[in-house]
Amino acid sequence: MFITRVASRLYRFQSTQLAHLAKAEPLLQIAARLHVAQVFWSSGLTKVQNWEGTLFLFQQEYQVPLLPPELAAWMGAGGELALPPLLALGLLGRFSALGLFVVNLVAVLSLPEVSPVALGQHLQWGGLLAWLAVSGVGAWSVDAWLQRKQPTAPPPQG
């Protein structure tokens, strides 16, 4: 009885008093987009600023499965430079989040050894990217603006 009453009161409190927290979702989505975009953009810039070093790492250190090291380096740097601006703007948001999720996953799997701190960062980025890919990039995005500009489709005939 007591537990049921407490649970009922907590549920009512959550439903009425904490429901306004949902209004913060667009802010959290844009914060996640900008944070992850900055991380991957910086990594991509580092790769192209020292291309010889990047090629050396892909040839000697990283063990990207199924791809020749030079192609893996080009694909990694390309993904880290092309997808973050899209994610930051929220343009093709789910696609860019999913693409960076794959880049992140390949980065973790291609390293022979990942420190616990680095693994924690990759898990954080992966979690944010998975959330954005599944839930969408939010109301404050180019995708949402374009969606609002679309005329409503007529109901299907027949």
Major sheet: none
Number of strands: 0
Label the overall shape. Answer: extended
Question: What's the total helix number?
Answer: 7
What is the chain-wise order of helices and strands? HHHHHHH
Residue share in helix = over 70%
The value of Rg in angstroms is 21 Å
Rounded to the nearest angstrom, the distance between the terminal CA atoms is: 54 Å
Number of domains: 1
Flag low-confidence runs: none
Proportion of residues in β-strands: under 5%
Average pLDDT over all residues = 93
Content-based structural category: mainly alpha
Please outline the helices and strands.
Blueprint: H1 2-16, H2 25-49, H3 51-60, H4 69-89, H5 93-110, H6 116-135, H7 142-149
Molecular structure report:
This protein has 158 residues and is mostly helical. The protein has one domain. It is built from seven helices and no strands. It has helices spanning 2-16, 25-49, 51-60, 69-89, 93-110, 116-135, 142-149. The longest helix has 25 residues, at 25-49. It is extended. The mean pLDDT is 93.
